[in-house]
């Protein structure tokens, strides 16, 4: 098994995508520390991994505080003897438009996604560097962090911040043999289940049927298991040369996202004054302005929700 002898932590792994990641890591031979805020959910996740013949332990605690990060790492080391892989998946949503978003809405999402990723990675890296055997840090991003999304100021900020941290960590951890990457999953989740555009795909999964090719191929939208293979790969020795990357995966599609680069570079002797920009913008710059938000093709007729 490709991860035989490895030990992984997966935050937010009681259900959904996180559980799929934990189960796949276990299938490939890793011992796994699962995490959830609900004790029964965590216990069920451990039982599901043990039913696969894997080894698992749990930490029931909210991600964000340093104390939780320390507990996760201590559990990995005390239970399984080491730590090789960290997957930072835990997250919450508090969606609303900017002018209705409260301080609590903003702080809750930032604390779990962004601060939780920071505190957990910091603690894991302390252990990995002390052990001197390298390691794998796999952070979970989102298309929203790459392109923005209506009603998700807090979530977009957190996911974009995670990408920025990952690129920095790839530089800082290189000498220690620790890789750091961000995975951008596109899959049927509790969140996408409420979006009418994805209704046919979600219904197919609920019915235990294959998702239509339009969703799997054209949209790169699939199941949690479609993402889990990439997580296991990035945790393996086969991915030792992969670091600082943002990799999208869903359905039949895998994408390596570009790092931000200038779309246009122009020079003007003396600098760009107000008057110069007014004159030059329409002809020189307007055509290279970048789009925002996700853009989806029109749904084929057979997948359109019935009119109410």
UniProtKB/TrEMBL annotation:
It comes from the Bacteria. This is 3-oxoacyl-[acyl-carrier protein] reductase. One of its GO terms (molecular function) is oxidoreductase activity. InterPro entries: KR_dom, NAD(P)-bd_dom_sf, Peroxisomal_Beta-Oxidation, Sc_DH/Rdtase_CS, SDR_fam. Residues 6-194 form the Ketoreductase domain. Keywords: Oxidoreductase. Gene3D superfamilies: NAD(P)-binding Rossmann-like Domain. Belongs to the short-chain dehydrogenases/reductases (SDR) family.
């Amino acid at each position: 098994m490709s991860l035989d002898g490895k030990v992984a932590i997966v935050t937010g792994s009681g259900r959904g995508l996180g559980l799929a990641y934990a189960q796949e890591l276990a299938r490939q031979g890793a011992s796994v520390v699962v995490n959830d805020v609900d004790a029964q959910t965590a216990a069920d996740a451990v039982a599901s991994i043990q039913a696969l013949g894997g080894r698992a332990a749990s930490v029931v605690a909210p991600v964000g505080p340093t104390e939780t990060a320390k507990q996760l790492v201590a559990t990995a080391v005390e239970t399984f003897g080491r730590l090789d892989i960290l997957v930072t998946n835990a997250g919450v949503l508090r969606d609303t438009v900017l002018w209705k978003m409260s301080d609590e809405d903003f702080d809750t999402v930032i604390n779990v996604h962004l601060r939780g990723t920071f505190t957990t990675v910091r603690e894991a890296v302390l252990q990995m560097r002390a052990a001197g055997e390298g390691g794998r840090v796999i952070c979970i991003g989102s298309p929203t962090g790459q392109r923005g999304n209506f009603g998700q100021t807090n979530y977009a900020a957190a996911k974009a911040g995670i990408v920025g941290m990952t690129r920095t960590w790839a530089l800082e951890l290189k000498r220690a043999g620790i890789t750091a990457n961000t995975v951008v999953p596109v899959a049927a989740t509790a969140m996408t289940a409420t979006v009418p555009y994805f209704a046919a795909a979600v219904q197919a999964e609920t019915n235990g049927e294959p998702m239509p090719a339009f969703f799997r191929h054209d949209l790169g939208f699939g199941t949690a298991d479609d993402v889990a293979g990439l997580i296991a790969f990035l945790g393996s020795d086969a991915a030792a040369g992969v670091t600082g990357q943002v990799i999208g995966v869903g359905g039949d599609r895998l994408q390596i996202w570009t790092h931000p680069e200038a779309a246009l570079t122009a020079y003007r002797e003396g600098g760009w004054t107000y008057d110069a920009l007014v004159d030059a913008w329409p002809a020189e710059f307007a055509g290279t302005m970048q789009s925002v938000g996700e853009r989806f093709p029109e749904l084929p007729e057979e997948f359109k929700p019935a009119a109410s």
